[in-house]
Design a protein that fits this description.
The chain is an alpha/beta fold. About 45% of the residues lie in helices and about 10% in strands. The N and C termini lie far apart (about 50 Å).
């Protein structure tokens, strides 16, 4: 039984069987996609092979296909990297202290956890020179990254302006990296370029891989000297399902800005029109994180609790006006409300008395924000240890959180907080002190220094020790696989969309052939869309981007 099915006490055998069948189809589709990449590789079409490897990786990432790493893709990309690397006399120097760091990103979007973590890292680690290599950046590199990079004395490199395609970009990235003491990968899990760039461990500096998408498939296990995990469950999964040696794993908490109230709880409540005597229970996350499980809504457990406490309200920012919550809300006179996503989330955090985590998928960033404002935390998780990736086990918010392993315990924890103002104050203070220590500078720097030190001490990873040359992916339908299917479902990109995404990184002959097939299937929105797809990506970037 999956972790999610356990939450409601209903095995939902037929749904599990359907999920298993669909997951098997994804696994088989991945095998076909890898075979296409391998066929191009055998013909010596390395740019095409790497592009198709990226397509296969996207297929494994979303939705989940029963595994978390690909021996075949990594082996293929490593070999392309070795075969196409320029001759070099550069050698890794032992005992080099890390002073110059090259951060590598696939693409940095203006908002999101990935860029926030990088910006805060750059701002905290002021004793080193930091540079950024952006591999697939579209548009400008966000100014909040450029600023601290330049201030540290570092440089910005736009890899996809290099003439050629992914093989040429990998060579460029490799050459740039040889001017640094360490490389930190903030890259997307489907990006083939780092595997090719860093295929020869003695021809690159120590490499640290940030495991920022810990519940998804990703490429890079065979080149990571150190994997930086942001929580314990991520580290467990990296070791058990990605094949990374335990000694090459370390936990470094997410770094955030030191929290600071803009207004008091009372003022925030007044602005939101919330009565002073109200006990505000609050949660914030994307709508999919509040998925109804086997007919039991996120709101349902609160009905009896709110009937017991007429002054208590539940607001869930990001859930939206959900039809499946309306009966629960009506049962307590509208005191359960789902609100749309809003950039003004902070005022709700500042107004809250109690913060409850999203379910069935956690939202650690929102938990940290609430903790940083001294709001007590409550979370629940009913699954087995193997599915802990769906639970709060993040260093700074794990200990102060009131955890629940049953629905009764969950409601009892919230009940205690509603009834006891002194307990709310004490647990809020505990949460604040913990998040300050683990997730904000200057104390956060001690965790990064340990990661740097580990990268300095360890010998380069031997890729053959991670994935044997003849290793293949193994389909699994245990945990956390089953819960991944149930939470995220099976929607995926259409094959035509995936091919459109790689047209610009295909050599001219293959690009024209793929373009013709897409045009026949009417995959392009209009003539302009079709014309643009014929251009090589490097040329589009040179013409379009300013910085």
């Amino acid at each position: 039984m999956s972790a999610i099915a356990m939450a409601s006490g209903n095995g939902a055998a037929s749904e599990t069987d359907r999920n298993l069948a669909r997951a098997r189809e994804l696994f088989d589709a991945f095998d076909v996609a890898v075979s296409r990449a391998e066929a191009a590789y055998r013909k010596g079409q390395y740019d095409t092979a790497s592009a198709l490897a990226g397509v296969a990786a996207i297929g494994a990432m979303g939705p989940h296909a029963g595994f978390f790493g690909s021996p075949r893709l990594e082996t293929l990309l490593l070999d392309i990297g070795r075969r196409t690397a320029r001759s070099s006399t550069w050698q890794r120097k032992p005992d080099t202290k890390i002073r110059r760091v090259l951060h590598v990103a696939s693409e940095l979007l203006p908002v999101g956890g990935l860029i926030n973590n990088l910006v805060h890292w750059l701002q905290a680690d002021t004793g080193r020179t930091h540079s950024l290599a952006a591999i697939h950046q579209r548009g400008d590199v966000p100014a909040n990254v450029v600023g601290p990079v330049k201030s540290s004395g570092g440089a910005i490199y736009r890899i996809n302006r290099t003439q050629g395609h992914q093989v040429a970009w990998a060579r460029k990235l490799r050459e740039i990296a040889q001017g640094y003491d360490a490389v930190v990968l903030h890259t997307y899990g489907q990006d083939p370029v780092p595997l090719m760039a860093f295929a020869e461990p003695d021809k690159r500096p120590p490499l640290l891989l940030l495991n920022h998408a810990d519940h998804l498939f990703w490429l890079g296990a065979s080149i990571a000297d150190v994997v930086i995990n942001m929580r314990e469950a991520a580290q467990d999964l990296t070791i058990a399902r990605r094949g990374v040696e335990p000694r090459r794993n370390i936990v470094v908490p997410t770094v955030i800005s030191p929290p600071k109230r803009v207004m008091s709880r009372e003022d925030a409540r007044a602005k939101l029109g919330i009565a002073p005597e109200t006990i505000l229970i609050f949660s914030a996350a994307r709508a999919m994180k509040y998925r109804t499980v086997d007919g039991v809504t996120f709101a349902a457990p609160f009905v009896q609790l709110l009937k017991k406490h007429p002054n208590a309200h539940l607001l869930v920012l990001g859930a939206g006006d959900r039809e499946d919550w309306r009966a629960d809300s009506a049962a307590v006179g509208g005191r359960i409300r789902g609100l749309p996503e809003s950039p003004e989330a902070r005022i709700y955090h500042e107004a809250a008395d109690i913060y409850v985590d999203s379910f069935p998928f956690v939202s650690s960033t929102s938990m940290m924000e609430a903790a940083g404002l001294g709001v007590p935390l409550v979370s629940k998780f009913y699954g087995p240890t193997e599915a802990r990736i769906f639970a709060i086990n993040h260093p700074g918010i794990d200990k102060p959180t009131l955890h629940a392993a049953t629905e009764r315990e969950y409601i009892d924890n919230i009940d205690r907080l509603i009834s006891d103002p002194a307990l709310r104050t004490a647990k809020g203070r505990e949460a604040l002190e913990s998040v300050l220590h683990y997730h904000t500078p200057p104390s956060w720097m001690s965790f990064v220094e340990r990661a740097y030190a580990l990268a300095e001490e360890l010998p380069p990873v031997d890729s053959a020790s991670v994935f044997a040359a003849d290793a293949r992916e193994t389909f699994q339908h245990g945990e956390p696989d089953r819960s991944l299917y149930e939470i995220f479902g099976f929607s995926s990109s259409k094959p035509d969309d995936l091919m459109k995404g790689v047209l610009g990184i295909l050599p001219l002959g293959e690009r024209i052939g793929a373009w013709s097939a897409l045009r026949k299937s009417r995959a392009f929105a209009n003539g302009k869309d079709a014309f643009r797809a014929l251009l090589p990506n490097w040329l589009v970037r040179r013409l379009s981007d300013r910085t």
